[in-house]
Write a structure and sequence with these properties.
Blueprint lengths: L2 H23 L3 H23 L2 H18 L9 H19 L8 H4 L17 H18 L4 H12 L4 H8 L3 H18 L1 H5 L1
Helix pairs in contact: 1-2, 2-3, 2-4, 2-7, 3-4, 4-8, 7-9, 8-9
């Protein structure tokens, strides 16, 4: 696949998104549904990476697209729809963290997640019980480490490492300088490395 072909596909996707947004702004609900499909997985994954709870992530997901639907008329095409909706998701997740007390994460329920909670990583070999135990151990530490980050650090870390969004786009999304994003990412990475040092060494 040549670079030229990739560029054409990208332009085509941008055009499709542009058309869908215009139709949605004119009241076309079907067009908005198609926009949701284009970014729903990213929004849910981002919300989950910032909350550690699928139930809370689903709430943030619903609130994000509800706000996007209500505010689609104010969208000015200064960024992609994905960037715009992810920015809404980040703000919703940050607000969630302000309301959610940290102690809930260390409660009995958090240590024994319900059937609706899904880990970041999946065990593919069910026969390897020790690997499953080990993975659960690491996941618990990852969740704990993520909760030591500030809201903005967690947002930047999640967007960069879980969503693989570039620094420049994250800066636009969070409406801050690229240097600020880099500093937040550096601090978040340092904290995560320190918290997971034992596992990283292994």
């Amino acid at each position: 696949m040549s670079p030229v072909y990739i560029h054409v596909v990208s332009d085509q996707q941008k055009y499709i998104e542009f058309e869908l947004v215009q139709r949605a702004q004119q009241g076309d609900a079907k067009a908005f549904e198609e926009l949701v499909i284009l970014s729903d997985h990213q929004v849910l994954n981002l919300a989950y990476s910032m909350t550690g709870s699928l139930t809370d992530a689903q709430d943030i997901y619903q609130e994000t697209f509800l706000r996007a639907f209500k505010g689609i008329g104010d969208f000015r095409f200064q960024s992609s729809f994905r960037t715009w909706v992810l920015r809404i998701a980040v703000n919703q997740a940050i607000n969630w963290r302000k309301k959610k007390k940290l102690k809930l994460f260390f409660s009995l329920d958090a240590q024994n997640p319900g059937e609706n909670d899904t880990p970041f990583l999946q065990i593919t070999d069910d026969s390897d019980a020790s690997a499953a135990i080990r993975s659960g151990e690491i996941l618990q530490q990852i969740h704990a480490a993520m909760h030591t980050l500030s809201s903005k650090e967690r947002a930047v870390f999640s967007l960069r490492h879980f969503q693989e969004i570039k620094i420049k786009e994250i800066a636009r999304m969070l409406e801050c300088a690229e240097g600020t994003v880099k500093n937040l990412l550096f601090r978040a990475t340092q904290k995560m490395q320190k918290a997971l040092a034992h596992y990283i060494e292994e």
